[in-house]
Each structure stands twice: as C-alpha cells, then as structure tokens.
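Narrative of accomplishments. A recurring question from our advisory board has been how the design workflow behaves on a single, concrete structure rather than in aggregate. To address it, we present the structure tokens for one chain from the evaluation set, followed by the sequence designed for it. No filtering or post-editing was applied between the two.
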C-alpha cells in the first residue's frame, strides 16, 4: 500500500487531566525528532524503546538515532509481534531488561508500535520501581486513534482480554502518520473500525465524512488520513478528560466491544484481530439495539454499509449463544453479574444498557433465523 503523503503542519491536541495532562502531537516524520520531543518533556538519561520485531526492522534504527543524537542512552527491548505477546510473561521480559540495564526512577520507556506494545509498555512503566515515565509513539491506526490515548494499559489473561492492568497516562503521544504506509492492509482496515466507532458514539458529521470519503481514506490519501486521526484523537481526548477512570462517560468508548471482546477471546486471540472483532461487535450491538426498540433500522443499515465499505467483516463467525454469553460475562464491563452494553440511539449518540439474558437470546435467535448470524458464508449482511 503506497501513499502520496505530502507535508502537513503539526496538529496538537491537549488531553486535559489536571496534573496528568499531556499533548498528542501529529506530524509527518515526527519519528525523526522524538529525541527533541523527549527533551522538551524534561526526560533525561536512559530510554527503553519497547517495540516488536515487525517495527524493529523498519523504525528502531531511526528512533534510536534520534534519541542518541539528543543525548539519550537507548535500550531496545524487542518482543514478538501480535496479541499473544500481551501477557505477564512479556512484562517480566521488560522488567528483566530494565533491571539489567539499571533503569532508575528518572528513566523513560518509549512504546514504538501498535496497541499491544503500547498497552504492555504503559503497564511496565506503571509498575517498574512503582512508576516511571512513558511516551507513546503509536505506529498502527488502532494505536494512533485509540489505544495510545487515555492511559489504559495492561495485559491479557487466558480467561479474558485486558484483565490485568493499570490506568497510567503517558507523558505525550507522538504520532507520525507516515508510519501507516507500512501497516499491513488488514491492520489498516481494522483501525478504521475504531474510527467509525467515534462517529457513532459522538459525532454524526464525522460519520458522514467517513461515508463520503471512505474511498480516498482506503487509498491512504494524506488529507483524509490526517483528518480521521486528528478527529478520532480529539473525540477520545474529550471523553477521557471527562472521565479518566471509566466511572461513567468513558464507557461509551466500549461501543462494539462487548461482543467484540467476546469474539476475540472465543477465537483464542488467533482468529479475528481487534478492530475486526469490534466492527462485527458494532454491527451486532446496533442490531441488538434495534431489536430492543432503542434505535431505528436506519442506524443498523448505515453502520453496516460503512463497515462493509471499509472492507471490514460484518458477520458473526460460527458461535453459539451460550458460548457468546459466557464470553461476554468475562468482560470487565460486567458489574454484579450484569452485562452492560453500549447501544446507539442514533448515529452520533449512544447509551449504556444492562442486557437481560433472555431478551438477548431472543435477539440472537431472531438474528440467526434471518440468516445474519449463522456462518460467514451464509451471512446475508
Ligand atoms: N489501551 C487502550 O485504550 C486500547 C484501545 C484499543 C485497543 N487496545 C489494544 O490494542 C491492541 C490492538 O492494537 P493493534 O491493532 O495496533 O495491534 P498490534 O499492536 O498487534 O499491531 C498490529 C500488527 O501491526 C504491526 N504493525 C504496527 N504498526 C506497524 C507499521 N507501522 N508498519 C508495519 N507493521 C506494523 C504489528 O507488528 C502487529 O503485527 C489490542 O491488544 C487491544 O486490546 C487498547
Ligand atoms: Zn478497541
């Protein structure tokens, strides 16, 4: 996938969190100046660059050079790529590297990679010597528009995604959209799932923009890509500022994730990738909302059409209701045994509702009988 990126000015978005406030900077070729940016933040000494093998071959040298030029001692920590790396075992690997390299409280971690690397690095930074600074340098679309912003960090447990972790805000998020050029097409589209989510939960005009610009976006044209990264970060920053610890408002970011996370864990993190699972989750959570009389059919139709146009899956893989329900109950959003789900009222507005097992089963069976659910092949969406 090639892209005719042109130079664009730097965009800066402020994440207001009192003493933990920080900036999201979006600028082409920002990788070349990470050293200067860290110095501006007051970092000094050692920087542990946590990345994965896919990114190490492409960007580690450039980032290391930029850091060394600014006077930092660089300790690369290279992990295997993929969700299966997001474990406590990887945290141990990072801890071992930091201890061996004699990292101190004043040292910094830099996450160079997708959401897996960002989540791991943030959690490692939260617990090493009771907390050291970290900076996000997200390289995947999911990471640039979602996971690098907001301070949720952690790892998976065999029984559920993200079950172990901490809230830990980065010192800054440094986004170089030029890195998206090397992102595999499947990962790129998966990121669009999260982008579409922002339109549904908070901004109908942005949803319309996506409907109108999906072709140039898929061609990675510079202006719409810059626009979707910026607008997504703005929405995420706004929501997180209002509710850092997910007591209430922040839960709207989980639209598509109740079913999405369940599908990911049912696949043992080997089948669907995160954004694909979220895409299916959004379509089915909207369909559930329609079934419950909470939104009109038009919401499901528009959402399904956009998800499809983005090249994302819209059908549930083969799964039984009891397996899905069981997996949904593993979700962190479950409270006192009740499964909560974010559902659209219209495009641009969502609400959070508790799900009753019987009603959810009735929806599932109805959806199934419409042949929307049975298998990917037979799905009529
Ligand atoms: N913390 C949060 O708030 C939050 C939000 C959303 C998602 N997440 C988490 O993020 C993870 C998913 O993130 P992801 O989709 O970035 O997955 P990922 O980190 O596994 O990256 C996807 C793949 O793309 C590769 N890659 C990344 N950037 C690249 C680039 N520029 N060029 C070439 N290859 C590149 C990676 O090596 C990997 O193989 C999940 O674990 C999810 O739970 C966290
Ligand atoms: Zn997500």
């Amino acid at each position: 996938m090639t892209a005719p990126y042109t130079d664009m000015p730097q965009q800066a978005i402020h994440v207001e969190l009192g003493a933990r406030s920080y900036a999201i900077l979006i600028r082409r070729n920002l990788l070349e100046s990470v050293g200067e940016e860290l110095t501006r933040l007051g970092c000094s000494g050692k920087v542990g660059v946590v990345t994965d093998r896919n990114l190490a071959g492409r960007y580690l040298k450039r980032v290391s050079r930029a850091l060394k030029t600014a006077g930092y001692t660089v300790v690369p920590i290279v992990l295997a790529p993929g969700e299966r790396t997001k474990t406590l075992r990887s945290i141990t690997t990072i801890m071992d590297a930091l201890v061996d390299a004699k990292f101190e409280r004043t040292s910094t971690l830099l996450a160079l990679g997708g959401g897996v690397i960002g989540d791991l690095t943030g959690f490692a930074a939260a617990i090493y010597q009771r907390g050291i600074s970290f900076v996000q340098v997200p390289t995947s679309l999911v990471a640039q528009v979602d996971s690098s912003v907001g301070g949720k960090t952690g790892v998976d447990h065999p029984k559920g995604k993200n079950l172990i972790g901490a809230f830990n805000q980065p010192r800054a998020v440094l986004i170089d959209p030029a890195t998206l050029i090397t992102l595999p097409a499947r990962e790129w589209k998966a990121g669009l799932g999260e982008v579409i989510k922002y339109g549904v939960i908070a901004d109908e005009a942005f949803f319309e923009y996506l409907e109108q610009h999906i072709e140039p976006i898929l061609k990675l044209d510079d202006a719409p890509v810059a626009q979707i990264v910026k607008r997504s970060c703005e929405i995420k920053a706004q929501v997180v500022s209002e509710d850092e610890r997910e007591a209430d408002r922040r839960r709207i970011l989980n639209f598509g994730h109740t079913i999405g996370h369940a599908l990911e864990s049912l696949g043992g993190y080997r089948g669907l990738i995160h954004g694909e699972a979220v895409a299916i989750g959004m379509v089915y959570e909207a369909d559930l909302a329609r079934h419950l009389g909470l939104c009109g059919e038009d919401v499901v139709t528009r959402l399904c059409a956009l998800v499809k146009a983005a090249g994302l899956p819209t059908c549930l893989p083969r799964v039984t209701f009891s397996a899905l329900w069981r997996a949904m109950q593993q979700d962190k959003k479950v409270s006192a045994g009740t499964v909560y789900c974010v559902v659209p009222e219209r495009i641009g507005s969502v609400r959070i509702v508790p799900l009753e097992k019987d009603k959810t089963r009735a929806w599932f069976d109805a959806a199934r009988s419409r042949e929307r659910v049975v298998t990917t092949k037979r799905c009529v969406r």
